[in-house]
Amino acid sequence: MPALKLSLPAGLAQGRLGQTWASLSRVPPLVWLSALLIAFTLWASIAPATLVAYDPLETDLANVLMPFTTEHWLGTDEIGRDLYSRLVHGARESFLIGLLAMLVAIVLALPLGFLGALAPRPVRHGVDRLIEILLGFPTLLVALLFVTLLGQDPLNVAIAVGIGSAPGYARLIRGQTLLVRNSAYVEAAVALGHTRAAILFRHIVPNAIRPLVPITGLGVGKAIVWSSSLSFLGLGVKPPSSEWGALLAAGKGQLLEAPWLLVVPGTAVVLVALSFSTLFHYLQARSEGA
Amino acid sequence: MSARQATISDVETSGKRQALLGAGHVLLGKLGQALLTLWATVTLLFVAQAVLPGDRATIYLNVLEGYSVTRTPEELAPINREFGFDRPLLVQYADYVGGVLQGDLGTALQSRRPVTDLILEQIGATALLAVSAIVLAWLIALAWTLATAGRHPALSRIGATVEALAAGMPHYWLGLLLLLAFAVHLDWFPVVGGDSWRGLWLPALTLAIPLAGFLGQAIRGEYEHALGQPHVLSSRARGTDEWRVRVVHALRPALIPGITLTGWALGALVSGAVIVENVFSRPGIGALLVSAVELKEFELISGIILIVSLVYVLITFLTDWLYTLVDPRVSFERKGEA
């Protein structure tokens, strides 16, 4: 009997490890690829110098507007700066702007969404209408309005994009909170006579927030696209920076001579945004038990 | 998924309210909602302008002269008098609302021309682009759904993946690729679009492809669901032609989420249009907006946002009515029960 008792935990652990391995090997290759790409971008934002051979600002006037070569993997710009180095060094700014924008959006959306679902009737209706009204404003236009109000720098771009995308998340949070509020377990808690605060913080808030984790991940990719769109218009981060949108803006003048100056950073944005959506869609599906 | 959830809950709440109001008052109620939305928009825009950091007259002078310095009261006084910046906020607000009601959205600071005129000059080009994009998007989405949905599982999966990819494309990237491929390399279309008809194709396509992806995602699920419904089975049993089954019996009910999404996508379409116009150097609201942001022309930006929400409100109204044409079960009176 004692022997059995001793071997049980070990067997359990093995079983768990095996299970983990089995579930990991079921992960589709595309999801792996996305995770890899996000990991690479993260690495580039933390330690860009370890990934590149050139300084992002080093000019090489002998190799101006070069297409892809073995020396310059992704070509050079009009004063011979290595595009791959600039891209890797720009990752941090693009990534941080996306992350911060998402944070701003969620911080604004949480109170709106909760109020829209839980507040007393008149407040709830007011907030509902407000969310609907704000949803009618195009994200880019609201972001542009706030960039104008706050001034064009990376921090303000993040804030503006966050404000612009907040209404969509507010609606999502509101829907999720309503779903939880009307659920059987909340009804049970009410019937058991739990206090309102206990029900709110032990049942409603955690269950309404949990699905937000994958959605936040999806949103970072979208926020990166929006902020690079602002920069592309020349209204966000300005060209000396190598933020990806700023690279696009800088490349606009060379569309005919050196299209890669636009296509490469654009593709980087697309790939990173796609990776975020692929990875977090997968996680979302997993967490919902699909 | 979130869009569909929201629609269902919207239908439910409006259903309850409509039952209370009765059939005749529904239109009136919707009109009231629309007016409330517009009033709130005007107020929000005014507040945004009023709380903007910095003195407006100073910003105006700095923008006009191209450099930032501290201004003396003597310099600011005439500007404040001309634009009324020195009056109490409540008076300015009443003035703003009154102006909007008469179609006066203020004066652009730099060109000193009415904002309404500036917008009306450009909105035609953008509207043409948006409408062409919506038509193209529907054509693409319908063709794609009919070709790939409810067929072999592998084909269906490929169809859904392509839709997801298309829906996630940033407009500037798609526009650039189309421009490089079809205007620069193949030379089928002009590189600088201008306002010619031939120049409309690529920008419209750039806007249409992501929208078609969204529409396709919305239509596909409902369409495949409808194909498994008893009424489809019975019409197949009656020997109805396969195309007729698919188009009339399965596709029609699947259009509803697509229609909802089209109204809802208008905002995304305007955002996209601003970028697409920039990529293809097309005239329109986009160019106006970019210059307005560069010059800090709040009146102009607010005016554009206001016009866009007016259109949005109208479109929402229109889509509510379109439902009744597509799905006979839905009517203004008993939308909630459908």
UniProtKB/TrEMBL annotation, chain A:
Membrane topology term reads: Multi-pass membrane protein
Q: Which domain of life is it from?
A: Bacteria
Stored InterPro entries = BP-dependent_transpt_permease (IPR050366), MetI-like (IPR000515), MetI-like_sf (IPR035906)
Leader sequence residues: none
One GO term (biological process): transmembrane transport
What residues does the ABC transmembrane type-1 domain cover? 91-280
Q: Which parts pass through the membrane? A: 30-54, 95-118, 130-149, 260-283
PROSITE patterns for the chain:
ABC_TM1 (PS50928)
The identity of this protein, by name, is Binding-protein-dependent transport systems inner membrane component
Q: What is the lineage of its organism?
A: Bacteria, Pseudomonadati, Pseudomonadota, Gammaproteobacteria, Pseudomonadales
TrEMBL record, chain B:
CDD domains (alphabetical)? TM_PBP2
Q: What is its main location?
A: membrane
- Read off the lineage from the record: Bacteria, Pseudomonadati, Pseudomonadota, Gammaproteobacteria, Pseudomonadales
Is Repeat set as a keyword in this record? no
* Protein name as catalogued: Binding-protein-dependent transport systems inner membrane component
Q: Which SUPFAM superfamilies match?
A: MetI-like
**GO cellular component terms?**
plasma membrane
Q: Where are the transmembrane segments?
A: 34-52, 123-149, 170-188, 200-219, 254-280, 300-326
UniProt keyword Transmembrane, yes or no: yes
* GO MF annotations, alphabetized: dipeptide transmembrane transporter activity
Indicate the family of this protein: Belongs to the binding-protein-dependent transport system permease family. OppBC subfamily.
Record's InterPro entries? Answer: MetI-like, MetI-like_sf
Mind telling me which Gene3D superfamilies this protein's record contains?
MetI-like (1.10.3720.10)
Q: Enumerate the subcellular locations listed in this protein's record, separating them with semicolons.
A: Cell membrane
Q: How does it sit in the membrane?
A: Multi-pass membrane protein
Q: Which PANTHER family match?
A: DIPEPTIDE TRANSPORT SYSTEM PERMEASE PROTEIN DPPB-RELATED (PTHR43163)
Q: Which residues form the ABC transmembrane type-1 domain?
A: 123-323
| UniProt organism field | Azotobacter vinelandii (strain DJ / ATCC BAA-1303)
